[in-house]
Amino acid sequence: MKIAKEIKVAVLAIVAIVIFYFGFNFLKGIDFFDPSNEYYAIYDQVDGLTAANPVLLSGLSVGRVSKIEILQEQENKLKVFFEVREDITLGKESVALLTSDILGSQTIVIKRNLVKDPLPEGSEIKGNIEPALTAQIQEQAYPVLKTLDSVGQHLNGILANIDKNEEAIQNIMLNVELTTQNLAKISEKQSTINAVIDDFKKISATLANEKNGLKALLQKTNGIADSVNALELAKVVNRLDTTLLTINSTVASMQDGEGTIDKLLNDDSLYLNLNQTLLDLDALLIDMKDQPKKYVHFSLFGRKDKKKD
């Protein structure tokens, strides 16, 4: 029995189509011989996620995205269906994290966590979105760019001030140059400076010496001062004591009626006699003034002898 060419072509075409279908889906990650469970997660956005994108668990591909639906009644949220190998159980604690690599490829990463209550096939898995790498870079770079902008503004202000104060800056540079020259001159006299420092160290060491240093000298000075103070004070006290004894003796003698002072103070006869003498002296002086010739004989030509009566 011969088979018509048309039938052969038709069978060959069907076989090719079937092979192409299975091969294409195999290349997309669909394994028709490995049973899987389907779950879904809801996201606000998917950033270019498409069907057949891989589902990873600890870096291992364990499934694929099967389809994506738009939930228009829920503010256009996206319902993403994905398949996971049947031997992998997910629970309420599990998370479907939507991530992207540096090239922008989207992947769902399963975070199983500790599964206490396994979910049946077709259940909802909590969905989260990991910030894209570019978004993270932008978030980290924004403060840096802001700081750079502020630094740039400060630099512009500084440059403007430099332009305005160019003469002052030149004067500062000249002063710096003069200072450098002076330091160079000082460095040329380093040997003299070292000698002065050495002498200062020797003087300091001498002063710090306990036997012959400043401390010992001060102690000796203090001792001499104390001795002088003690000596002068003792002399003053002795003199004062002698003076007081003399005064006490004199006062005692006056109180006992001894001596001229006591008589002057207590006997008025001496006062009366002295007063009478002064009166007689005063009368004599008055008489000498009135009759000087009675008391004084004076001649330019010599003394004349008195006639004898």
Automatic annotation (TrEMBL):
<feature type="transmembrane region" description="Helical">
    <location>
        <begin position="7"/>
        <end position="27"/>
    </location>
</feature>
<dbReference type="InterPro" id="IPR052336">
    <property type="entry name" value="MlaD_Phospholipid_Transporter"/>
</dbReference>
<keyword id="KW-0812">Transmembrane</keyword>
<protein>
    <submittedName>
        <fullName>Phospholipid/cholesterol/gamma-HCH transport system substrate-binding protein</fullName>
    </submittedName>
</protein>
<keyword id="KW-0472">Membrane</keyword>
<keyword id="KW-1133">Transmembrane helix</keyword>
<feature type="domain" description="Mce/MlaD">
    <location>
        <begin position="36"/>
        <end position="109"/>
    </location>
</feature>
<dbReference type="Pfam" id="PF02470">
    <property type="entry name" value="MlaD"/>
</dbReference>
<dbReference type="InterPro" id="IPR003399">
    <property type="entry name" value="Mce/MlaD"/>
</dbReference>
